[in-house]
């Protein structure tokens, strides 16, 4: 069969697709990945086939849009708290009113979903899909153009998650709240946007264009959200991109090794720049550990000199580094988090503050596989040192991390998932014209 991946136009999420794409290729299927022209080189470096679709979309444009949003641009007057309207991860019952959720979905549709799937990109993707005729379209959860293109060409389609399913969680709660309102008072920002887009290609709106005919989920089953939709579990297989294992990493560490990874994408928006780097370096100074820290702008911003036990490296494949580590310090970005899960590594998390980042950090804490710093911006060196020592020295963290690793290893690998995708595709595919 032919499989078309439709991907988020940012580099960071792209690596989660590669193991499944190669598993499909290895099983004899044709695979290509559609993305913006500025992502083509990143795709082809994986050995996969790229299809440039739409115009160049730089990350800075998304950041600027988010910043304008956070300042309250275009916010409806009846929304209680305009500054919270990017909080699709909100779970507090007292906040989840119809007006609040309507505001969140309106803002997300206007500034995120439409940005990733403008009319010109949808049209170009539909043209390609009708010409190439994929059997299955796998689309990232923010790129609804994939669902529209699948509907237009009759392909089966599913979402491919890389983190927690915040869209389906908020969507389900919103539909419940909307269903309690009189019909004349019901407004649906996603349907208002997607229905006309679908009509242009002879299709009608349905919930499958929001949450897929099914959803492939790499999150460990114990951490999946209660959305009620159909999931196909698939083990997260770490992929770090082209990389080289340095000689020093092939030698066993002389003392406990800790990975320090400060690499949250778009830190200006996600709150990743709140980490008190000088306090963190002070916390590490003098500990009987070797700290390996990939160089990042945030780490380079430190005014304090690097302690002698910190090895700053230009780059290192995380998947190869973590097996030699006793713990990892990171900001709860999903790719680092899932790689740590895969290797059973206890964690100290300094979380950002947007999307599913705080929820993932809370899950690490609740599962007993690590600790989450409660107030990152104001954390002291003493607090950080004490939390890291707990993670390193209390056996329960390593035990719980190993338990979660075993759970993850018990879910199907990408190669094991392919036969199920073949069956689901045959069940849902609807050929047109």
Automatic annotation (TrEMBL):
<dbReference type="InterPro" id="IPR010610">
    <property type="entry name" value="EryCIII-like_C"/>
</dbReference>
<feature type="domain" description="Erythromycin biosynthesis protein CIII-like C-terminal">
    <location>
        <begin position="280"/>
        <end position="424"/>
    </location>
</feature>
<keyword id="KW-0045">Antibiotic biosynthesis</keyword>
<comment type="similarity">
    <text>Belongs to the glycosyltransferase 28 family.</text>
</comment>
<dbReference type="InterPro" id="IPR050426">
    <property type="entry name" value="Glycosyltransferase_28"/>
</dbReference>
<dbReference type="InterPro" id="IPR002213">
    <property type="entry name" value="UDP_glucos_trans"/>
</dbReference>
<keyword id="KW-0808">Transferase</keyword>
<feature type="domain" description="Erythromycin biosynthesis protein CIII-like N-terminal">
    <location>
        <begin position="22"/>
        <end position="262"/>
    </location>
</feature>
<dbReference type="InterPro" id="IPR030953">
    <property type="entry name" value="Glycosyl_450act"/>
</dbReference>
<dbReference type="Pfam" id="PF21036">
    <property type="entry name" value="EryCIII-like_N"/>
</dbReference>
<keyword id="KW-0328">Glycosyltransferase</keyword>
<dbReference type="InterPro" id="IPR048284">
    <property type="entry name" value="EryCIII-like_N"/>
</dbReference>
<dbReference type="Pfam" id="PF06722">
    <property type="entry name" value="EryCIII-like_C"/>
</dbReference>
<protein>
    <submittedName>
        <fullName>DUF1205 domain-containing protein</fullName>
    </submittedName>
</protein>
